[in-house]
Amino acid sequence: MSERSGGPSRRPSRPQRQHPPARRQGPRRPPEDDPARIAAWDTLKAIRERDAYANLVLPKLLRERRIGGRDAALATELAYGAARAQGLLDEIIAACSDRPLSEIDGPFLDAMRLGAYQLLRTRIPAHAAVASTVDLVRAVHGSGPAGFVNAVLRRVGEQDEQAWVKQLAPEDPVGRLAFTNAHPKWIAQAFADALGDKGDELDAALRADDARPAVHLAARPGEISSEELAAIVGGDVAPYSPYGVHLEPGAGDPGDLEPVRERLAAVQDEGSQLCALALTRAELAGRDERWLDLCAGPGGKAALLAALARLSGATVDAVEKAPHRADLVRKSTTGLDITVHVADGRDSGLPEGGFDRVLVDAPCTGLGALRRRPEARWRRRPDDVADLTKLQRELLTAALKLVRPGGVVAYVVCSPHLRESIGVTSDIVRKGLAEAVDTRDLFPGVPHLGDGPHVQLWPHRHGTDAMFCQVLRRL
Ligand SMILES: C[S@@+](CC[C@H](N)C(=O)[O-])C[C@H]1O[C@@H](n2cnc3c(N)ncnc32)[C@H](O)[C@@H]1O
C-alpha cells in the first residue's frame, strides 16, 4: 500500500454528495446497550487524538467500565482489528466518500473505520455492522453526521475486501502485497529487502505480521522448568527456548497467572529469550564473571540474564537511560542480584574493558514486533530509521569499549530493517573493531537461519517476533 497520503490507483464512481447538517446542540451519549462498540470507538479516538497505544487504552477502558466476557472480546477484536487495518480501511473509505479523508471529522472517520472493519473483516451481518455504527454516531453527533457515515458505509459494504483489493491495490508486487495485508508500503519493502523475496514469502511474512501473536512466557532459570510452567498454566513447551512456554492466543491476561505474579515466570517473546541466551552461549576464553545489559528497560532480557548469571556465578549490571524504565528493570529483576544504573549507554561511566559479555538490545523502529501494537505500523515513519541507526552505532561502539578484548557483545534489534540490522554490525566489523561470530551456532535447533553470520528470526518462520541478533567478539 502506498503511504497514507497515497490514493488508490482506480476509484469507483463517487456516491452522491452528502452534506451533513450542523450538529445538534448539547452533549449526547452513545447508546448504553452497545458497550463493546463504544469502547472500540473510544479506543480509536485515543489512538488518533493522543497517539495512545491501543493495548494500553482498551484494557483500561474495559476494566473501568466493567466490560467482560463476549463484549470485551468483541471490543478487542474491533478496536485492535480496525487499528491494524487502518491504512487499508482508509483507502476504501476514501474511495466511497465525496470528501477527502483529511476533511472528515475525526470521530466520524473513527466510526467509518469501525464500521468498515466489521463489514470487511468480521462475520457480523452487514446490516448490523452499518446500523450499530450509525446508531453510535447519531446518538452523539446527531442525524446529519449519522447520514453521512451511513452513506459511506453502505458503499463500503457493496463489495467484500477481496473485491476492494482487486479494485484499489497498486500494480507493483510489493505495493500490492502491502495493500492486501494492510501494511504501509515502506514496511513491506523493508521486509522484502531483508527476506530477499517479493512474492510468496513476503506474503507469508506480512500475513503473519497481521495476526494476533500467541503470548510466550519465560520460566525463570533455576526456579521452575518450562515443563512445570506449561503444566501449571496450561500452555505448550516452546520449540526452541529451553525456558519458553506458549499460551493460546486470547488465553486471558497473562499477568493474572500465578507463576507470573510470583515472578517464577515473565511474559517474553521466545525470540527475545533466544537472543539473550545467545549472549550467554557464545564461547569465551578466560574470565567470564561480569555481564552487562546496556539498554535494559523494561528488563525482560535483564531478568533472564540475571537468573542465568546467578546459576553460573557471574554478576550483572544494567544500564537504562530513562529513569522510569530503570524502575521497571528493578521491578522485573526483583529477587535477583543486579545493579541498575540510570545512564546513557554511550557514556555510562562504567569501566572500559570491565565486562566479559555485553548485550546491546538497542532502541529501534520495532518493525519486528508490529503485531503486538495494533496501531504501530501506521505511526512509524521511514524517517525514524536514520536517527535510530546513528544511536544504534554509537551504543554498539560504546559496548565494544566496555567489553574486554576477546569478550563478546550481542547486538540485538527487534527489526528486520537492513539499515538497523546488518547495516550497523557490518560497519563495525569493517572498521576492525570486532569480528562477527557465526550467531546461528548460538541458536541450536532453530531452522531456516539463512547464510549467517547473523540471525534474523521471523513470525512466519519461527513464530517469534522478527528479532535480529549478531554476536561480535572484540578484537
Ligand atoms: C529495545 S529496548 C530494550 C528492551 C530490554 N532489553 C528488554 O528486554 O526488556 C531499548 C531500551 O533502551 C533505552 N535507551 C534508549 N536510548 C538509550 C541510551 N542512550 N542509553 C541507554 N539506554 C537507552 C530505551 O529507553 C529502552 O528502554
Please render the helix and strand layout as text.
Blueprint lengths: L34 H16 L3 H11 L4 H16 L1 H11 L9 H16 L4 H16 L1 H14 L4 H8 L4 H8 L4 H11 L4 H10 L6 E4 L6 H8 L2 E2 L6 E3 L11 H4 L3 E3 L2 H12 L8 E4 L6 H13 L2 E6 L2 H10 L5 E5 L12 E7 L14 H4 L4 H19 E11 L8 H9 L3 E3 L18 E2 L2 H4 L5 E7 L1
Parallel strand pairs: 5-6, 5-8, 6-7, 8-9
Antiparallel strand pairs: 1-3, 1-4, 2-3, 9-12, 10-12, 11-12
The chain binds S-adenosylmethionine.
Write a brief caption for the model.
With 475 residues, the protein is α/β, with parallel strands linked by helices.
Within the CATH hierarchy, at the fold level, what is the topology of the largest domain?
Rossmann fold
- Relative strand content: 5-15%
Please give the domain count: 4
The low-confidence runs, each spanning 5 or more residues with pLDDT under 50, are: 1-27
EC number: 2.1.1.176
Protein name: 16S rRNA (Cytosine967-C5)-methyltransferase
Enzyme class: transferase
InterPro entries: MeTrfase_RsmB-F_NOP2_cat, MeTrfase_RsmB-F_NOP2_dom, NusB-like_sf, NusB_RsmB_TIM44, RCMT, RsmB/NOL1/NOP2-like_CS, SAM-dependent_MTases_sf
Walk me through what this model shows.
- 46% of the residues lie in helices and 12% in strands.
- It is an alpha/beta fold and 475 residues long.
- It contains 20 helices and 12 strands.
- The protein has 4 domains: 35-162, Orthogonal Bundle (N-utilizing Substance Protein B Homolog, Chain A), CATH 1.10.940; 171-210; 212-267; 269-474, Vaccinia Virus protein VP39 (Rossmann fold, 3-Layer(aba) Sandwich).
- It starts with 34 loop residues before the first helix and ends with a strand.
- The strands form 2 sheets. Strands 5, 6, 7, 8, 9, 10, 11 and 12 form an 8-stranded mixed beta sheet that branches. It has a 4-stranded antiparallel beta sheet with strand order 2-3-1-4.
- Bound molecules: S-adenosylmethionine (SAM).
- S-adenosylmethionine (SAM) is lined by residues 272, 295-301, 319-322, 325, 344-346, 361, 363.
